[in-house]
């Protein structure tokens, strides 16, 4: 990252994911019986805010970023409003106001993930080579936010824990306001008029591109992989803390964070891997990472060392599939709809995949739980393993992008 623009984009990614990492890991305990005492239904509703925002963002926010507003100004305004919203949650204790503020924050924050990607691709000289390095800043930002807050709050209980946990909203809100001001220094990225013959609705043009078989296949595979990816976060914590594995509660998050360290390393080599292996092989390895990890969970639950070691596959799962996906979208869609195209696939990653994981894996785990609380983890984890193998087969058989999208060709902007 030699250019000043790439360095600014790297800082942008750090702040972008610092905002999210500050509150997501710890908000659930804060909303529970030791904190705000919300019901399970209320907690679940707060958890759907991102999914709602990912749907609405396609039709409004990403449309504005593509057609109406300069991307850096869109980022600034969105993080200003989103930052004020989550900052206000520090003082709120009733559910209706708390949920409303989280929904407002999500509506303004979620689209910025797609716009940040699109902005980065616009100003990188070689997106396939450099995006992994820039996006690595996001993982670093998440760790910088989540890890210190997690360890600071360890050992606290009762009123002390609740009071301390509220600080996640201060940290997230202040970092969002910081990114709002920093965004004004990002490279100017003006909106793009509709291409000749294309609809003025960028999201509609993005949807039309799914008429290309290779993009439709990728859309379906992304939905399956997003469901598996979100399912991991739903099920892994309980599994690691189960009697079979026996990891102490205070070490569950650090163990899962091994995957984030691996993600940083994988992002660093993503450009070289793409150039050598190509789109299909790289994304296939990303999906097979899920299959391997869940297979180890299913068949080797008593091998704690192996369970911990296999967490490194998270880096391959995320970087080789999702980061590659974002690079491919930038290459496959025209400039005037790229924010909407990123939002279209983020609808799956952040929205429908998350909801599908909850609808599938939570009831499934309930049905596989005995009266004494013991879970049949082998059968449970064979389901996402099977899903991953189906997605892999679909990608191998039916994903054939045009030769001009070869990742051996430098993407010009």
TrEMBL record:
One of its GO terms (cellular component) is plasma membrane. Its main location: membrane. Keywords: Cell membrane, Membrane, Transmembrane, Transmembrane helix, Transport. Signal peptide: none annotated. It is found in: Cell membrane. GO terms for molecular function: cytidine transmembrane transporter activity; uridine transmembrane transporter activity. The chain crosses the membrane at residues 9-31, 43-62, 74-92, 98-121, 133-153, 168-189, 251-275, 282-300, 306-329, 341-361, 381-400. It is a multi-pass membrane protein. Residues 1-403 form the Major facilitator superfamily (MFS) profile domain. Gene3D superfamilies: MFS general substrate transporter like domains. It comes from the Bacteria. The keyword Ion transport does not apply. Pfam families: Nuc_H_symport (PF03825). InterPro entries: MFS_dom, MFS_trans_sf, Nuc_H_symport. This is Nucleoside transporter.
């Amino acid at each position: 990252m030699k250019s000043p623009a790439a360095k600014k984009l790297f800082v942008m990614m750090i702040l972008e994911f610092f905002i999210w990492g500050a509150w997501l890991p710890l908000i659930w305990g804060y909303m529970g019986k030791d904190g705000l005492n919300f019901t399970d239904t209320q907690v679940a509703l707060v958890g759907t805010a991102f999914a709602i925002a990912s749907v609405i963002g396609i039709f409004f926010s990403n449309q504005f970023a593509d057609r109406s507003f300069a991307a850096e100004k869109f980022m600034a305004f969105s993080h200003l409003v989103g930052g004020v919203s989550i900052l206000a949650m520090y003082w709120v204790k009733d559910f209706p106001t708390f949920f409303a503020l989280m929904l407002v924050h999500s509506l303004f924050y979620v689209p910025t993930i797609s716009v940040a990607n699109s902005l980065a691709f616009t100003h990188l000289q070689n997106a396939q080579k450099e995006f992994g390095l820039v996006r690595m800043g996001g993982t670093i930002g998440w760790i910088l936010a989540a890890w210190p807050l997690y360890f600071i709050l360890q050992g606290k209980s009762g009123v002390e824990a609740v009071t301390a946990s509220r600080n996640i909203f201060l940290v997230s809100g202040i970092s969002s306001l910081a990114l709002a001001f920093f965004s004004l220094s990002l490279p100017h990225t003006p909106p793009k008029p509709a291409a000749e013959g294309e609809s003025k609705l960028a999201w509609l043009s993005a949807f039309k591109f799914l008429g290309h078989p290779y993009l439709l296949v990728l859309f379906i595979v992304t939905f399956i992989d997003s469901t598996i990816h979100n399912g991991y976060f739903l099920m892994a914590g309980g599994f690691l803390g189960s009697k079979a594995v026996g990891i102490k509660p205070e070490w569950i998050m650090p163990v899962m964070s091994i995957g984030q360290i691996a993600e940083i390393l994988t992002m660093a080599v993503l450009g070289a891997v793409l150039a050598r292996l190509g789109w299909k092989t790289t994304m296939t390895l990303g999906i097979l990472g899920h299959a391997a990890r869940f297979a180890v969970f299913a068949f080797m639950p008593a091998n704690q060392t192996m369970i911990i070691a296999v967490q490194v596959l998270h880096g391959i799962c995320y970087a080789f599939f999702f980061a590659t996906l974002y690079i491919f979208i930038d290459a496959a869609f025209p400039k005037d709809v790229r924010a909407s195209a990123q939002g279209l696939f983020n609808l799956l990653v952040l929205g429908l995949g998350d909801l599908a994981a909850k609808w599938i894996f939570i009831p499934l785990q309930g049905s596989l739980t005995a009266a004494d609380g013991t879970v049949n983890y082998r059968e449970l984890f064979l389901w996402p393993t099977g899903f991953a193998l189906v997605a892999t087969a679909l990608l191998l058989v039916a994903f054939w992008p045009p030769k001009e999208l070869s990742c051996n060709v430098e993407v010009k902007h």
